[in-house]
Specification:
301 residues; mainly alpha; Rhopdopsin 7-helix transmembrane proteins; three-stranded mixed beta sheet; 11 helices; 70% helix; 3% strand; globular
Length: 301
Protein backbone atom coordinates (compact mmCIF):
# COMPACT_ATOMS: atom_id res chain seq x y z
CA UNK A 1 0.00 0.00 0.00
CA UNK A 2 2.84 2.38 0.79
CA UNK A 3 4.43 1.66 -2.57
CA UNK A 4 1.13 2.24 -4.35
CA UNK A 5 0.84 5.69 -2.76
CA UNK A 6 4.11 6.72 -4.39
CA UNK A 7 3.72 5.00 -7.75
CA UNK A 8 1.12 4.94 -10.51
CA UNK A 9 2.80 2.14 -12.46
CA UNK A 10 1.25 -1.24 -11.65
CA UNK A 11 2.84 -3.20 -14.50
CA UNK A 12 5.75 -3.07 -16.91
CA UNK A 13 5.90 -3.75 -20.64
CA UNK A 14 8.70 -6.04 -21.81
CA UNK A 15 10.02 -5.41 -25.32
CA UNK A 16 11.45 -8.93 -25.62
CA UNK A 17 14.15 -9.92 -28.09
CA UNK A 18 12.54 -8.87 -31.35
CA UNK A 19 9.41 -7.29 -32.83
CA UNK A 20 9.47 -9.49 -35.92
CA UNK A 21 6.70 -12.12 -35.83
CA UNK A 22 8.80 -14.58 -37.82
CA UNK A 23 11.77 -14.23 -35.49
CA UNK A 24 9.54 -14.57 -32.45
CA UNK A 25 8.24 -17.92 -33.73
CA UNK A 26 11.82 -19.08 -34.32
CA UNK A 27 12.79 -17.86 -30.86
CA UNK A 28 9.80 -19.69 -29.38
CA UNK A 29 10.89 -22.98 -30.93
CA UNK A 30 14.58 -22.48 -30.22
CA UNK A 31 14.24 -21.41 -26.59
CA UNK A 32 11.67 -24.13 -25.91
CA UNK A 33 14.26 -26.71 -26.95
CA UNK A 34 17.02 -24.95 -24.97
CA UNK A 35 14.89 -24.71 -21.82
CA UNK A 36 13.78 -28.34 -22.07
CA UNK A 37 17.43 -29.35 -22.48
CA UNK A 38 18.50 -27.33 -19.43
CA UNK A 39 15.79 -28.81 -17.21
CA UNK A 40 16.14 -32.39 -18.42
CA UNK A 41 19.94 -32.25 -18.37
CA UNK A 42 20.09 -30.98 -14.80
CA UNK A 43 17.41 -33.45 -13.70
CA UNK A 44 19.49 -36.25 -15.22
CA UNK A 45 22.52 -35.08 -13.24
CA UNK A 46 20.44 -35.00 -10.04
CA UNK A 47 19.00 -38.47 -10.56
CA UNK A 48 22.35 -39.96 -11.57
CA UNK A 49 24.20 -38.59 -8.56
CA UNK A 50 21.46 -39.49 -6.08
CA UNK A 51 21.05 -43.11 -7.20
CA UNK A 52 24.69 -43.91 -7.99
CA UNK A 53 26.49 -44.56 -4.67
CA UNK A 54 29.89 -44.20 -6.38
CA UNK A 55 29.11 -40.51 -6.91
CA UNK A 56 28.34 -39.76 -3.27
CA UNK A 57 31.45 -37.62 -2.98
CA UNK A 58 31.98 -33.97 -1.96
CA UNK A 59 32.43 -32.85 -5.57
CA UNK A 60 29.11 -34.30 -6.67
CA UNK A 61 27.34 -33.07 -3.56
CA UNK A 62 28.27 -29.55 -4.66
CA UNK A 63 27.41 -30.39 -8.26
CA UNK A 64 23.81 -31.39 -7.56
CA UNK A 65 23.32 -28.12 -5.69
CA UNK A 66 24.75 -26.29 -8.69
CA UNK A 67 22.34 -28.19 -10.95
CA UNK A 68 19.39 -27.21 -8.74
CA UNK A 69 20.38 -23.55 -8.84
CA UNK A 70 20.91 -23.68 -12.62
CA UNK A 71 17.50 -25.26 -13.15
CA UNK A 72 15.70 -22.70 -10.97
CA UNK A 73 17.72 -19.82 -12.39
CA UNK A 74 16.66 -20.82 -15.88
CA UNK A 75 13.02 -21.10 -14.77
CA UNK A 76 12.45 -17.69 -13.22
CA UNK A 77 12.21 -15.85 -16.55
CA UNK A 78 12.62 -18.17 -19.55
CA UNK A 79 9.15 -19.84 -19.38
CA UNK A 80 7.44 -16.43 -19.38
CA UNK A 81 9.71 -15.27 -22.18
CA UNK A 82 8.75 -18.34 -24.24
CA UNK A 83 5.03 -17.69 -23.69
CA UNK A 84 5.49 -13.98 -24.48
CA UNK A 85 6.84 -14.87 -27.93
CA UNK A 86 3.24 -15.79 -28.79
CA UNK A 87 1.75 -12.59 -27.33
CA UNK A 88 1.49 -9.14 -28.83
CA UNK A 89 1.41 -7.40 -25.44
CA UNK A 90 4.19 -8.57 -23.14
CA UNK A 91 3.43 -7.28 -19.66
CA UNK A 92 4.45 -8.17 -16.13
CA UNK A 93 3.03 -6.92 -12.83
CA UNK A 94 5.10 -4.81 -10.47
CA UNK A 95 5.34 -7.63 -7.95
CA UNK A 96 6.16 -10.11 -10.71
CA UNK A 97 8.97 -7.82 -11.82
CA UNK A 98 10.18 -7.45 -8.24
CA UNK A 99 10.14 -11.24 -7.77
CA UNK A 100 12.21 -11.78 -10.91
CA UNK A 101 14.86 -9.33 -9.70
CA UNK A 102 14.93 -10.83 -6.21
CA UNK A 103 15.32 -14.45 -7.31
CA UNK A 104 17.81 -13.59 -10.03
CA UNK A 105 20.17 -11.96 -7.53
CA UNK A 106 19.49 -14.58 -4.84
CA UNK A 107 20.31 -17.50 -7.13
CA UNK A 108 23.02 -15.67 -9.05
CA UNK A 109 24.86 -14.66 -5.89
CA UNK A 110 24.50 -18.16 -4.47
CA UNK A 111 25.86 -19.73 -7.66
CA UNK A 112 28.88 -17.44 -7.66
CA UNK A 113 29.81 -18.57 -4.16
CA UNK A 114 29.03 -22.20 -4.98
CA UNK A 115 31.45 -22.07 -7.91
CA UNK A 116 34.10 -20.78 -5.49
CA UNK A 117 33.27 -23.70 -3.15
CA UNK A 118 33.73 -26.13 -6.05
CA UNK A 119 37.10 -24.55 -6.83
CA UNK A 120 38.13 -25.06 -3.19
CA UNK A 121 37.04 -28.70 -3.46
CA UNK A 122 39.18 -29.23 -6.57
CA UNK A 123 42.14 -27.46 -4.97
CA UNK A 124 42.02 -29.83 -2.00
CA UNK A 125 41.50 -32.91 -4.21
CA UNK A 126 44.43 -32.08 -6.49
CA UNK A 127 46.88 -30.37 -4.14
CA UNK A 128 46.16 -32.28 -0.91
CA UNK A 129 44.77 -35.64 -2.06
CA UNK A 130 45.82 -37.58 1.06
CA UNK A 131 43.81 -35.23 3.30
CA UNK A 132 40.89 -34.75 0.93
CA UNK A 133 38.20 -36.68 2.83
CA UNK A 134 39.35 -35.22 6.14
CA UNK A 135 39.31 -31.62 4.94
CA UNK A 136 36.15 -31.89 2.83
CA UNK A 137 34.10 -33.43 5.64
CA UNK A 138 30.28 -33.34 5.68
CA UNK A 139 30.44 -30.49 8.18
CA UNK A 140 32.65 -28.42 5.88
CA UNK A 141 30.40 -29.16 2.89
CA UNK A 142 27.30 -28.03 4.78
CA UNK A 143 29.12 -24.90 5.90
CA UNK A 144 30.18 -24.08 2.33
CA UNK A 145 26.64 -24.66 1.08
CA UNK A 146 24.96 -22.57 3.78
CA UNK A 147 27.51 -19.80 3.28
CA UNK A 148 26.73 -19.72 -0.44
CA UNK A 149 22.98 -19.41 0.07
CA UNK A 150 23.38 -16.92 2.91
CA UNK A 151 25.61 -14.62 0.88
CA UNK A 152 23.17 -14.90 -2.03
CA UNK A 153 20.24 -13.95 0.22
CA UNK A 154 22.07 -11.01 1.82
CA UNK A 155 23.20 -9.82 -1.60
CA UNK A 156 19.68 -9.98 -3.05
CA UNK A 157 17.99 -8.45 0.01
CA UNK A 158 20.39 -5.53 0.07
CA UNK A 159 19.61 -4.85 -3.59
CA UNK A 160 15.84 -5.18 -3.26
CA UNK A 161 15.26 -3.28 -0.01
CA UNK A 162 15.18 0.14 -1.67
CA UNK A 163 12.94 -1.05 -4.54
CA UNK A 164 9.84 -1.24 -2.31
CA UNK A 165 9.69 2.55 -1.92
CA UNK A 166 11.07 3.51 -5.32
CA UNK A 167 8.40 5.56 -7.18
CA UNK A 168 7.43 4.71 -10.77
CA UNK A 169 5.16 7.28 -12.35
CA UNK A 170 6.38 7.63 -15.94
CA UNK A 171 7.57 5.24 -18.65
CA UNK A 172 7.07 1.56 -17.88
CA UNK A 173 8.83 -0.04 -20.87
CA UNK A 174 11.69 -2.43 -20.08
CA UNK A 175 13.99 -3.11 -23.04
CA UNK A 176 14.45 -6.78 -22.27
CA UNK A 177 12.53 -10.03 -21.81
CA UNK A 178 12.77 -9.95 -18.00
CA UNK A 179 13.18 -7.40 -15.21
CA UNK A 180 16.61 -6.55 -13.90
CA UNK A 181 17.85 -3.73 -11.70
CA UNK A 182 19.86 -1.69 -14.22
CA UNK A 183 16.86 -1.46 -16.57
CA UNK A 184 14.13 -0.98 -13.97
CA UNK A 185 15.92 1.58 -11.81
CA UNK A 186 16.31 4.03 -14.67
CA UNK A 187 12.49 4.08 -15.07
CA UNK A 188 11.97 5.51 -11.57
CA UNK A 189 10.77 9.11 -11.41
CA UNK A 190 13.53 10.31 -9.07
CA UNK A 191 17.29 10.76 -9.08
CA UNK A 192 18.74 7.26 -8.91
CA UNK A 193 22.43 8.11 -9.13
CA UNK A 194 23.17 6.78 -5.64
CA UNK A 195 21.18 3.63 -6.36
CA UNK A 196 23.19 3.09 -9.51
CA UNK A 197 26.35 3.31 -7.44
CA UNK A 198 24.88 0.77 -5.03
CA UNK A 199 24.22 -1.68 -7.87
CA UNK A 200 27.78 -1.30 -9.12
CA UNK A 201 29.26 -1.58 -5.63
CA UNK A 202 27.16 -4.61 -4.70
CA UNK A 203 26.65 -6.77 -7.79
CA UNK A 204 29.76 -5.66 -9.64
CA UNK A 205 32.03 -6.12 -6.64
CA UNK A 206 30.61 -9.54 -5.76
CA UNK A 207 31.01 -10.75 -9.36
CA UNK A 208 34.53 -9.40 -9.67
CA UNK A 209 35.77 -10.69 -6.30
CA UNK A 210 34.39 -14.20 -6.90
CA UNK A 211 35.89 -14.28 -10.38
CA UNK A 212 39.30 -13.22 -9.08
CA UNK A 213 39.14 -15.83 -6.30
CA UNK A 214 38.43 -18.51 -8.89
CA UNK A 215 41.37 -17.36 -11.00
CA UNK A 216 43.63 -17.55 -7.94
CA UNK A 217 42.54 -21.12 -7.14
CA UNK A 218 43.01 -22.26 -10.75
CA UNK A 219 46.43 -20.63 -10.91
CA UNK A 220 47.52 -22.35 -7.69
CA UNK A 221 46.26 -25.72 -8.94
CA UNK A 222 48.10 -25.42 -12.25
CA UNK A 223 51.23 -24.15 -10.47
CA UNK A 224 51.17 -27.10 -8.08
CA UNK A 225 51.14 -29.70 -10.86
CA UNK A 226 53.68 -28.02 -13.13
CA UNK A 227 56.48 -30.30 -11.84
CA UNK A 228 54.52 -33.41 -12.67
CA UNK A 229 54.96 -35.33 -15.89
CA UNK A 230 53.93 -33.58 -19.07
CA UNK A 231 50.96 -35.91 -19.42
CA UNK A 232 49.79 -35.02 -15.91
CA UNK A 233 50.02 -31.31 -16.62
CA UNK A 234 48.16 -31.73 -19.90
CA UNK A 235 45.47 -33.73 -18.12
CA UNK A 236 45.13 -31.05 -15.45
CA UNK A 237 44.65 -28.39 -18.13
CA UNK A 238 42.15 -30.60 -19.92
CA UNK A 239 40.04 -31.32 -16.85
CA UNK A 240 40.16 -27.76 -15.49
CA UNK A 241 39.37 -26.15 -18.85
CA UNK A 242 35.73 -27.28 -18.64
CA UNK A 243 35.06 -25.53 -15.35
CA UNK A 244 37.04 -22.46 -16.40
CA UNK A 245 34.83 -22.21 -19.51
CA UNK A 246 31.67 -22.50 -17.41
CA UNK A 247 32.94 -19.84 -15.00
CA UNK A 248 33.84 -17.49 -17.86
CA UNK A 249 30.41 -17.91 -19.48
CA UNK A 250 28.78 -17.13 -16.14
CA UNK A 251 30.93 -14.29 -14.82
CA UNK A 252 31.91 -12.35 -17.94
CA UNK A 253 28.37 -11.07 -18.68
CA UNK A 254 27.72 -10.43 -14.96
CA UNK A 255 30.84 -8.33 -14.55
CA UNK A 256 30.11 -6.45 -17.78
CA UNK A 257 26.45 -5.74 -16.92
CA UNK A 258 26.98 -4.67 -13.33
CA UNK A 259 30.22 -2.76 -13.69
CA UNK A 260 28.81 -0.77 -16.62
CA UNK A 261 25.11 -1.29 -15.91
CA UNK A 262 23.63 1.90 -17.30
CA UNK A 263 24.91 1.98 -20.85
CA UNK A 264 22.48 2.49 -23.70
CA UNK A 265 22.87 -1.10 -24.87
CA UNK A 266 20.57 -3.76 -23.49
CA UNK A 267 23.44 -6.13 -22.84
CA UNK A 268 21.44 -8.24 -20.37
CA UNK A 269 19.98 -10.05 -23.39
CA UNK A 270 23.44 -11.49 -23.98
CA UNK A 271 23.30 -13.01 -20.50
CA UNK A 272 20.43 -15.28 -21.54
CA UNK A 273 22.44 -16.86 -24.37
CA UNK A 274 25.62 -17.27 -22.34
CA UNK A 275 23.74 -18.80 -19.42
CA UNK A 276 22.08 -21.25 -21.77
CA UNK A 277 25.46 -22.18 -23.22
CA UNK A 278 26.85 -22.57 -19.72
CA UNK A 279 24.08 -24.96 -18.66
CA UNK A 280 24.47 -27.08 -21.79
CA UNK A 281 28.26 -27.14 -21.44
CA UNK A 282 28.04 -28.12 -17.78
CA UNK A 283 25.60 -30.94 -18.53
CA UNK A 284 27.65 -32.38 -21.41
CA UNK A 285 30.93 -32.22 -19.51
CA UNK A 286 29.48 -33.78 -16.36
CA UNK A 287 27.86 -36.57 -18.37
CA UNK A 288 31.28 -37.44 -19.81
CA UNK A 289 33.27 -37.10 -16.60
CA UNK A 290 31.09 -38.80 -13.99
CA UNK A 291 32.03 -42.32 -15.10
CA UNK A 292 35.77 -41.67 -14.73
CA UNK A 293 35.71 -39.72 -11.46
CA UNK A 294 36.48 -42.71 -9.26
CA UNK A 295 39.50 -43.59 -11.39
CA UNK A 296 40.98 -40.13 -11.76
CA UNK A 297 41.46 -37.64 -8.93
CA UNK A 298 42.07 -34.88 -11.47
CA UNK A 299 38.63 -35.27 -13.04
CA UNK A 300 36.93 -31.86 -12.90
CA UNK A 301 33.57 -30.41 -13.69
Amino acid sequence: MERANHSVVSEFILLGLSKSQTLQILFFLGFSVVYAGIVLGNLLILVTVIFDSRLHTPMYFLLINLSCIDMILASFAIPKMIVDFLRKQKTISWWGCYSQMFFMHLLGGSEMMLLVAMAIDRYVAICKPLHYMTIMSPRVLIWLLLSSYTIGFVHSSSQMAFMLNLPFCGPNVVDSFFCDLPLVIKLACKDTYLLQLLVVADSGLLSLVCFLLLLVFYTVIIYSVRHHAASGLAKAFSTLSAHITVVTLFFAPCVFIYVWPFSRYSVDKILCFTQSLKSYYLYIKESRSKSSHEEDKLSYT
